[in-house]
């Protein structure tokens, strides 16, 4: 069943994406809805899986994660069993912040945060390259973060 979002639902989603800790009163003030109407709408958005969770945004550098790399991963074989195996294994890597199955020259794009180049080398050589079915890995390193939402 597809949920239809009206302009107020979209406004609530946008407000919560900006500030996941906003109170019902703050959301009420921003939208012009009553607190109970905001509460009902937010609960429906959560129930319908439009809002899937709330998380703290962190400063990775202050957490000691100085390097962010994007890795393009190409598998040797592409049948469903190998895709599922890779996806299960990559989910066990704490360094991996996100993973996308993509179309194009590569099979997956992963985002990796590590403290330094030694840690990145350890991740690549002991974790990623150790997985069965890894063909090639091409890495790009973030020099400066321009925008992240």
Describe it.
There is one protein chain. Helix content is 38%, strand content 20%. The protein has 149 residues and is α+β, with helices and mostly antiparallel strands. The protein has two domains: 41 residues, Arc Repressor Mutant, subunit A, CATH 1.10.10.10; 75 residues, Lrp/AsnC effector binding domain/regulation of amino acid metabolism (RAM) domain (Alpha-Beta Plaits). Helix 2 crosses helix 3. The longest helix has 13 residues.
Strand content is 15-25%
CATH topology of the largest domain: Alpha-Beta Plaits
CATH architecture type of the largest domain: 2-Layer Sandwich
Strand order of the largest sheet: 2-3-1-4
**CATH superfamily descriptor of the largest domain:** Lrp/AsnC effector binding domain/regulation of amino acid metabolism (RAM) domain
| Number of strand elements | 4
The number of helical segments is: 5
Q: What does the radius of gyration come to? A: 20 Å
CATH class of the largest domain: Alpha Beta
Overall pLDDT score: 94
Low-confidence parts lasting 5 or more residues at pLDDT below 50? none
């Amino acid at each position: 069943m597809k949920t239809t979002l009206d302009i107020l639902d979209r406004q609530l989603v946008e407000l919560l994406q900006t500030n996941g800790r906003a109170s019902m009163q703050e959301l009420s003030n921003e939208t012009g809805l009553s607190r109970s109407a905001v509460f009902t709408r937010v609960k429906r958005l959560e129930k319908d899986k439009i809002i899937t969770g709330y998380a703290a945004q962190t400063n990775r550098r202050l957490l000691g994660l100085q390097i962010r790399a994007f890795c393009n991963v190409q598998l040797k074989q592409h049948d469903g069993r190998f895709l599922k195996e890779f996806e299960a294994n990559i989910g066990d890597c704490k360094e991996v912040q996100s993973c996308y199955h993509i179309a194009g020259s590569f099979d997956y794009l992963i985002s990796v945060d590590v403290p330094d180049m030694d840690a990145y080398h350890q991740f690549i050589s002991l974790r990623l390259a150790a997985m069965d079915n890894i063909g090639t890995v091409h890495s790009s390193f973030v020099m400066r973060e321009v925008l992240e939402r």
